[in-house]
Design a protein that fits this description.
It is globular, with a radius of gyration of 24 Å. The chain has helices at about 5-20, 45-55, 70-85, 105-120, 125-130, 140-150, 160-165, 170-175, 180-205, 225-240, 260-265, 285, 295-305, 315-325, 330-345, 360-375, 380-390, 400-410, 425-435, and strands spanning about 60-65, 90-95, 210-215, 250-255, 270-275, 415-420, 420-425. Helix 6 (about 140-150) runs antiparallel to helix 9. By secondary structure, the chain is of the alpha/beta class. InterPro entries: P-loop_NTPase. This is Orc1-like AAA ATPase domain-containing protein.
Length: about 450
């Protein structure tokens, strides 16, 4: 972005945002270290420490956070941290490379996908090198098992993903037709194959610890009438069947939906590490909804890494307004608010850099406010009101559980961490819910930012 033409600069920045690469390597020029905090507030460092100090067999960890918080990027950082430790070997697999995000998942599906993805990953040259051929090769044993027990035909090393996706519909129909005894046997065999693959890693790298991170499961969601069924399935897998997800000889890290710790008792059953939204506001016990300079500065760095000349396009106050409106959600800032602002500004180049009170910002914010307000209905206002006032979740009825899952899925509710975990509404809902008459509203302190 070396052009002196503001229109070209704007177009280049817009194109970059529209084609954002998604999950980043820590070596990427776009990566901002310590975005979510340092020390005890760095959940990736805490998770890495928990793995480092753990001993024994079949360790299980849950890693969570909402879409837009940078979970996949931070898992990549964890992979690098772990592989930098003597005697440890870590791998990331993406479950949604094998199933769709609306797939009605069961525990058997998840174990089968995990085994298939791990085998695919280990078939790559940097994983096991060139394992010997023959019947004792764990990759060959697994593909033979897929063909015979699960009846996936045509499976070859490195081609599991393609065959799995191609045969997904018929495969899942077969799995659903298994009787309970066969399901239990196949799940046990899945875990055994994952364990054999881990043992091959231990032998190849002389590693005492093998860590397998299963990414993207937090994106599982139901649509329309299937939303409640998906919620029930996810809770059953990650809460009711969590012991089935343990694999001997492995440290398993599953990326799980962010509503689980608020709606289940999993914190008492498994170590959970929650990645929060960037803390652009002070915590409610200090100064409710007041800007937090350190958080604003961190988000400015995210923009700076992508476009060092952003101040030619909008003032710092204007960017801060968009940051506060995003609630610290990276995706909402970059791919929606900021990109839409630049698109609108392309027809008003004479007003660059945009000020915080420019009508373009007001148009963009109002458009997204209307969009977010359409994601909730009046029957849900009391529940949202309670979250806004208490910065916590207190349910009155069990039938509200899927509703809360929906709030997290669409980011109507955001989670934060300032020493303790707390919740607030997406800033685009503040106006609607604070003004609703479902219960007495708490007055906002002077100086609260207007989204």
């Amino acid at each position: 972005m070396t052009t002196s033409d503001p229109g070209q600069l704007l177009d280049d920045f817009s194109a970059l945002l529209a084609n954002d690469p998604g999950a980043l390597s820590t070596q990427s020029g776009y990566y901002v270290p310590n975005l979510h905090g340092t020390g005890a507030e760095d959940v990736v460092a805490l998770l890495g420490r928990a793995i480092r100090r753990s001993h024994g067999d079949a360790q299980l960890y849950y890693f969570s956070g909402q879409r837009g918080t940078g979970k996949s990027t931070e898992l990549r950082r964890l992979e690098i941290l772990l592989n930098g430790q003597a005697g440890t070997r870590a791998y990331i697999i993406d479950a949604l490379d094998y199933i769709g995000d609306t797939h009605p998942i069961d525990t058997l599906d998840l174990l089968l996908v995990t085994a298939a993805a791990f085998a695919d990953r280990l078939s790559q040259a940097d994983a096991l090198g060139h394992p010997p051929d023959g019947p004792e090769n764990p990759l060959q044993r697994f593909t033979r098992w897929l063909a015979t027990e699960v009846e996936i035909s045509g499976v070859t090393l490195g081609g599991v993903k393609a065959e799995f996706k191609q045969q997904q519909q018929s495969l899942m129909q077969r799995l659903r037709a298994f009787d309970l005894a066969r399901q239990e046997r196949v799940m046990a065999e899945c875990r055994a194959h994952i364990g054999h693959l881990a043992a091959a890693v231990q032998q190849r790298w002389q590693a005492s610890k093998v860590v397998l991170m299963v990414d993207s499961l937090e994106r599982l969601r139901g649509i329309g009438k299937d939303a409640t069924e998906m919620f029930d399935r996810v809770v059953r897998v990650f809460d009711g069947d969590l012991n089935q997800l343990r694999v001997p000889g492995l440290h398993m890290v599953y990326a799980v939906p962010p509503y689980l710790p608020y709606l289940t008792n999993i914190k008492a059953l498994v170590q959970l590490f929650m990645l929060a939204s960037v803390r652009v506001c002070e915590p409610p016990f200090r100064a409710r909804r007041s800007p937090r300079e350190a958080g604003l500065q961190a988000m400015r760095q995210v923009v700076e890494r992508r476009c060092p000349r952003w101040r030619e396009l909008l003032t710092e106050a204007a960017l801060d307004r968009l940051i506060l409106t995003s609630g610290g959600d990276l995706r909402q800032l970059l791919r929606r608010l900021l990109l839409d602002t630049l698109d609108e500004a392309s027809f008003a180049l004479d007003r660059l850099p945009l000020r915080a009170d420019d009508a373009i910002l007001e148009t963009v914010v109002q458009r997204h406010r209307v969009e977010f307000e359409s994601l909730v209905v009046q029957d849900e206002y009391p529940l949202l009101k309670g979250i806004a006032e208490q910065n916590a979740l207190e349910l009155r009825h069990r039938d509200e559980l899927p509703v809360v899952a929906h709030f997290f899925d669409v980011r109507a509710v955001l989670n934060y961490r300032n020493g303790v975990d707390w919740l607030d509404l997406n800033p685009l809902l503040w106006q609607l819910i604070d003004q609703s008459q479902t219960s007495p509203a708490l007055p906002a302190p002077a100086g609260s930012p207007a989204p």
